[in-house]
Please model this.
Amino acid sequence: MALAHGPRDGVCSARGCENPATLAIVWRNPALHHGRHKTWLTCEDHRDFLLSYMRARSFPARVVPIADVGGAEV
Model:
């Protein structure tokens, strides 16, 4: 049994949120992720919160429609 929702579940990645995701935040940690990216799904309610979390850490991040997630790079 999974502890949290993953991208295939289509649920917002914000802790405790069960809303359907409508967008994806594609990000990477330059110190760790060389040539690869991570994806967090988000609902409209948590989009700004999750994006500001990435930006506060100086992680390159962008918001894309879920349909554009395959192969997205930052």
About this structure: Residues 7-68 form one domain. The longest helix spans residues 47-56. The radius of gyration is 12 Å.
